[in-house]
Amino acid sequence: MIALAAIDLDTQLLPDDITLLLLWAGLALNINATFAPLASAVIGAMAGYLSLWAVYWAFKLATGKEGMGYGDFKLLAAIGAWLGWTALPLVILLSSLVGAAVGIALIVFKRHGRENPIPFGPYLAAAGLIAMFWGGQIARRWLPLFT
Predict the structure, then answer these.
(1) In the structure, what pLDDT confidence band is assigned to residue 115 with cuts at 50, 70 and 90?
(2) Is 147's pLDDT higher than 80?
(3) What is the mean pLDDT of the segment spanning 133-145?
(4) How many whole angstroms separate alpha carbon 85 and alpha carbon 80?
(5) Cβ distance 55 to 100 under 8 Å?
(6) Is the CB of residue 35 less than 8 Å from the CB of residue 132?
């Protein structure tokens, strides 16, 4: 994840060699439910990919521009394969909040123009790691506030 974040920051690419390896490794590790039941991992991989794919196409149809790359879809699919589909809402929320905050800060402090793309992979990677290590604690602490 650290390598993917660094590569994406540098090149705005998430290489298939790493993202697809992570996806298959997550599915393989979850054959025995290491991090999530296998069915949840498979659904997580599909839902991770398809959720960002849908956002991509909605944005493209609305604006005529590409808002993210296919590597982001694959990275979220890999995170879903490792953690299962139930972790995806937290990962998307965390990565979006941090990405938006950093993007706004970069624009406000004139270090980045609005027309310059900001890689989303580092925020997905960080959110995936946070969800892996502290996702259960975050959900137990904050979910009751919304029910």
Answers:
(1) confident
(2) no
(3) 86
(4) 5
(5) no
(6) yes
Q: In this structure, is the dihedral angle defined by the CA atoms of residues 44, 45, 47 and 51, taken in order, positive or negative?
A: positive
Q: Tokens 């991090």 sit at which residue?
A: 35
**Separation of alpha carbons 113 and 58, rounded Å:** 23
Mean pLDDT of the chain: 92
Q: Are 105 and 53 in contact (CB under 8 A)?
A: no
24/47 Cα distance (integer angstroms) = 15
> What is the spatial distance between Cα 108 and Cα 86, in angstroms, rounded to a whole number?
35
> What are 3-35's pLDDT values in tens digits?
999 999 999 999 999 999 999 999 999 999 999
